[in-house]
Amino acid sequence: MDLMGMMGKLKETQQKIEDTKKRLDMVLIDEQSADGLLKVTLTANRKIKSITIDDSLLEDKEQLEDYLIVTLNKAIEKATDVNQTELDAVAKMDMPMIPGMDNLFK
């Protein structure tokens, strides 16, 4: 593949990655505490869309803080996994193989 062809392929891949990022704004990740008292929804791009808190958690600030930390971290981890999987798939599918660069996608 010539240099111009490679540059065109890189530009095309970059556009597909941007398109994938936009699509991931529409993918929602739902997570809740084990007892269901706290629920969060965020996008696969890790933007919080909603938080629902049961009234019983409003009585104990420390407990609410703990619930938020645990539940948000679990949701962010799930969203990160989805995000990374999708972006890796686009990059691997379309990237031209440049000698010495193949280790970047393992």
Automatic annotation (TrEMBL):
The keyword Cytoplasm applies. It comes from the Bacteria. Residues 3-30 form a coiled coil. One of its GO terms (molecular function) is DNA binding. GO terms for cellular component: bacterial nucleoid; cytosol. InterPro entries: YbaB-like_sf, YbaB/EbfC. The keyword Secreted does not apply. Keywords: Coiled coil, Cytoplasm, DNA-binding. Its main location: cytoplasm. It is found in: Cytoplasm, Nucleoid. PANTHER family: NUCLEOID-ASSOCIATED PROTEIN YBAB. Belongs to the YbaB/EbfC family. Homodimer. Binds to DNA and alters its conformation. May be involved in regulation of gene expression, nucleoid organization and DNA protection. This is Nucleoid-associated protein B0A62_08470. It comes from Flavobacterium hydatis.
